[in-house]
UniProtKB/TrEMBL annotation:
Gene3D superfamilies, per database record: 3.40.630.30
Gene Ontology cellular component annotations, sorted alphabetically: cytoplasm
MF terms (GO), sorted A to Z: protein-N-terminal-alanine acetyltransferase activity
Superkingdom in the source lineage: Bacteria
Family membership noted in the UniProt record: Belongs to the acetyltransferase family. RimJ subfamily.
InterPro entries, alphabetized: Acyl_CoA_acyltransferase (IPR016181), GNAT_dom (IPR000182), N-acetyltransferase (IPR051531)
Underlying gene: rimL_1
Keyword Hydrolase belongs to the record: no
Protein known as: N-acetyltransferase
Length: 181
């Protein structure tokens, strides 16, 4: 199922399921150390590793490739992940937002448009009541995307220096309970 949206610059995007044909584009995305650090994973070191990661993402039904239609390339990923409660159970009618974008396409409004479209999908199609997200405090672009999409910050946690993700950094937690009016 593809979902189409348009950026403020008029660039057409399609949110669609990943396929193995996206492996090279996905490798460009997941081998970037800056993207990996912000998203909380270790960069891929080979095309084979990227293919393995892509196959894992493709199993998740609410995760979509962001295709820049003019170039027929997967330039990023946006989706909704299962959210767990404090007791380790899946949260009812709540999901976590996750996204990443190839650095060549930053600051063009692409992720802002993709997030707006995925929120529409989450609230109107999946009938979610709450969507959460987080980002590191040193990532003002992600903070801006979330605030623009009607998320509000509800917590901040400083990770210990030995943490595998965001060691010594502060992670900001956001939630959204309705679409922008």
């Amino acid at each position: 199922m593809g979902m189409v949206t348009v950026t403020a610059r008029g660039e057409q995007l399609e949110l669609r399921p990943f396929t193995l044909a996206d492996t090279t584009d996905y490798y460009d995305l997941v081998r970037d150390p800056a993207i990996a650090a912000s998203a909380g994973f270790t960069p891929a070191h080979s095309l084979t590793e990227a293919e393995f990661l892509l196959k894992q993402q493709a199993k998740l039904p609410q995760i979509f490739a962001i295709e820049l239609v003019a170039y027929h390339r997967a330039i990023g990923s946006v989706g909704l992940y299962e959210r767990m409660t404090n007791t380790g159970e899946p949260a009812t009618l709540e999901m976590d937002l996750g996204y990443m974008l190839n650095a060549r396409y930053w600051h063009r409004g692409i992720m802002t448009a993709a997030v707006a479209r995925i929120l529409q999908y989450g609230f109107k199609t999946l009938h979610l009541r709450r969507i959460t997200a987080s980002c590191l405090a040193n990532n003002p672009a992600s903070q801006q995307i979330l605030v623009h999409a009607n998320f509000r910050q509800y917590d901040a946690v400083r990770h210990p220096d030995y943490a595998p993700f965001g060691a010594g950094q502060t992670e900001l937690f956001y939630d959204c309970v309705e679409l922008n009016p």
